[in-house]
Amino acid sequence: MKKYILTVLALASAFVSAQETPFKFKELVNNSALPIISQGKTGTCWSFSTTSFLESEVLRLTGKNVDLSEMFNVRYTYPVKAYNYVYRQGKAQFSQGGLSHDVLNSVRLNGVVPNEVYTGITGIETKHDHELFVKDLKVGLDSIIKNPKQYLTKDWKTNFDQKLNKKLGTPSTKFKYEGKEYTPQEFAKALKINPEDYVTITSFKQAPYYSQFVLQVPDNFSNGNYYNLPLDEYMKVLDEALFKGFTAAFDTDVSEKTFSRKYGMAIWPAEGKESDYFVQILPEKWVSADERQAAFEDYSTEDDHLMHITGILKDQLGNQYYDVKNSWGTDNVGNNGHIFMSKPYFRMKSIAFTIHKDALSKEVKKQLGIN
Q1: Helix (H, G, I), strand (E, B) or coil at 371
Q2: Are 107 and 47 in contact (CB under 8 A)?
C-alpha cells in the first residue's frame, strides 16, 4: 500500500500473553492458516494477505496445505495498473498498492501456482524488494504519457512485460506439482478456487446500505465493487463467518499510534495517555457509524494495509479481539507476527473485508442480492 513495510504460527496453548503487556488472551476461534511470511520491502500486502486467505480457503475446501505464490498475482497485476495509468494519461494510480479483488481478478484470468514454481525472486536476490523497481517502472510510463506519439507507436507493452520478467521471473504456463502436470488455471480449479464465490463487504454512508458501489479509495484502481452494510451488520457478518470456520482478508488503516507492531496489537482507547497504550488495559470507545464515516471523510482513515483475519480472542476482562495474520515476518514483532485487533479498532479503522459468499446467512444474501 502507501507505506512500504519491512518485513501462522499456531498459538501454543489456550492462553497466550502479548509481549511486555498485562493482556492475557484466550482463543475463542482459531481457524487454520499457513505460517507467517514477510512481504519484504514491497507494498504488496494486498497479495500476501489475499493469497494467505486463499490458502486457508484451499485448506477448508480440500483439506490440502498448499503454499501459493503471492508474486504470481503481483506479476500479472502490474501490467493492468500500467495500462490503466497510461490510458488515463497519468490521472490514475500507479504504485505497488492494490486490493483483494485484484488478486481475485488475476486468479480469474491467470490461475494460481505454488510458490515453489514462482517465487518472484531472481538472480542473487534473496528477499522481495520492489521499491526502486516500481519507481523505475513509473518513470518509464510517465515518459510514454509525456511523449505518446513517440512511444505508443512502439510495443511498449512488450517492453514493460520484459522488465517484469527480468525482475520477477517469467511466469510458467505449465508446471508439475506432486507428480501431476497443470496449467495455472487447471491448478486453481483443482484447488476449488473460484473467484466468483467471493464477495467484499464494507460499511460507509456515502452509498445506500444493501447496495453495491465502487469504494472511493486510492488503491481501487480497478474499480472493484463493494457490498455495503450497516456497521453493526458488517461486524455481525464477520463474526458469524469466523465462528463457522471461514477466514477473511481485510483492508485497514494502520497509521494510528494505537496500532503497534512492537506489541502486536491494535486498540481504540476511550481515554488514557499514549504512554499507557498496551501497558495498561484501557477502556475502549465503542464506535458509531457517524464517527467511522467522519474518519473516512477527513482522511484520517486510509487504505494503508491488508491482512488476514483467522480467529477471535478475548482478554481477561472479556474484551474481544480479532486474531490477524500479518505479512511483516516474525522478527521483532509482538505476538509472533500476529496483530490482536480490538473490535472497536476494527469498527473504526477497517475499510472492508473479503469472504466466501457461503459465509453469509440466507437473510444477508437476500438483502444484498447474492445467489
Answers
A1: coil
A2: no
- What are the extents of the domains in the chain? 15-368
Whole-number Å distance between alpha carbons of 292 and 205: 9
Say whether 128 is catalytic: no
pTM over 0.85: yes
User: Is 94 within 8 Å of 82 (Cβ atoms)?
Assistant: yes
- Is-contact 81 221, C-beta < 8 A? yes
- Note the CATH architecture for domain 15-368: Alpha-Beta Complex (3.90)
Q: Which runs of consecutive H residues, i.e. helices, occur in 89-183?
A: 100-110, 131-146, 148-151, 156-168
Catalytic annotation, pick one of 73, 326, 335, 338: 326
For residue 114, give the nearest of 167, 67, 151, 146 by alpha carbon. Answer: 67
Q: Catalytic site residue 101?
A: no
Annotation says 308 is catalytic? no
- Summarised one tens digit per residue, pLDDT across range 120-176 is 999 999 999 999 999 999 999 999 999 887 767 678 999 999 999 999 999 999 999
The catalytic residue among 101, 128, 130, 305 is 305
Residues 6+ apart with CB under 8 A from 316: 23, 24, 26, 281
The helix (H) or strand (E) run that includes residue 72 is helix 70-87
Residues contacting 330, CB < 8 A, separation 6+: 9, 36, 336, 337
Give the contacts of 34 (CB within 8 A, at least 6 positions apart): 8, 52, 55, 56, 65, 67
